[in-house]
Amino acid sequence: MSLRVLVADDQEIVRTGLAMILGAQDGIEVVATAVDGQDAVEQARDLRPDVCLLDIRMPRLNGIEATRALAGPDVADPLAVVVVTTFDLDEYVYGALLAGAKGFLLKDCGPELLTHAVRAAADGGSLIAPSVTTRLLKGFATRDTPADPVSPLTDREEQVLVAVARGLTNHEVAAELYISLSTVKTHLGSLMGKLGVRNRVELALWAYQTRRLD
């Protein structure tokens, strides 16, 4: 079954280009395009696509506000959102991820990374443009250190947490720690429950904030 994607950008040439790139990939179908954030939210709520690809700077409702409406902490049944932008600004990155986005890309990322991000988001994972990842995480690490979880992490959970924060995929974590893929997923679920986070990006942020990585 194809992944169903909604693409939102107020610039027609960009919107069409993103839709063409994704539509040309095996297993991906662009089911809708939107001209602004409000249009994106309305169509996404109606169509329930697997992934919403949203530009940040759009009229009526910007991409961060649209992300919060579709994937924010108060949304009962959140959708997977990947944010794309021309502007490599920390405030955009922080805003998008805190609003619930599972990915953050620059528009010059290329078809391969764009496709990877969409597939990762649909699979419950996340992807941030490599050019901003380290800066982003270190920036969050300078903020207030979060409280320790009520239930302490096990040694294995600590290992999985650090591996995820380093950017490893589930398969890579399994290979590095000599455990099964299902065990990795079990540990990730436990980590998210203990730390009160929603995705791998927030796990990585927590690891940096608590100085698990330099």
Automatic annotation (TrEMBL):
GO terms for biological process: phosphorelay signal transduction system; regulation of DNA-templated transcription. Residues 146-211 form the HTH luxR-type domain. Keywords: DNA-binding, Phosphoprotein, Transcription, Transcription regulation. The modification 4-aspartylphosphate is found at D55. GO terms for molecular function: DNA binding. PANTHER family: TRANSCRIPTIONAL REGULATORY PROTEIN NARL-RELATED, TWO-COMPONENT RESPONSE REGULATOR. This is Response regulator transcription factor. The lineage of its organism: Bacteria, Bacillati, Actinomycetota, Actinomycetes, Propionibacteriales.
